[in-house]
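Annex B. Sample input.
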Amino acid sequence: MGHTKRYHTFNDAEDAIKDQVLQLCETYSHAIKQLLPVLKKGQQQAPQSDQKTFEDFFNEGNDHLHNLVQLAIELKDISNENRGTILEISSEVLANTVKFLSEAPKELEKTSLFKHPS
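Annex B, continued. Sample output.
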């Protein structure tokens, strides 16, 4: 089994969580930045029947990217007064992003662009 990390104070634990969330924001932002050009290209090259799907995923990806960037900004400027709230919000932002990143490929594979590539 793994070694359990122990923290001396509650603030130390929150700082560790903040650092981990910032790292996840960076990782997920990078993944979305790689996906967006593919979605944009799909939006332009997909058959008419699939263009809306690519457009919707492109817009949703941009929304998630914006949320991750804002969360990272908030975490970097976190104060003791809003620390709990920001960390709570971060779990929702990260969960929604993970859901998007895991569902997007599965849904896009259903489009005719992936079923019958040119």
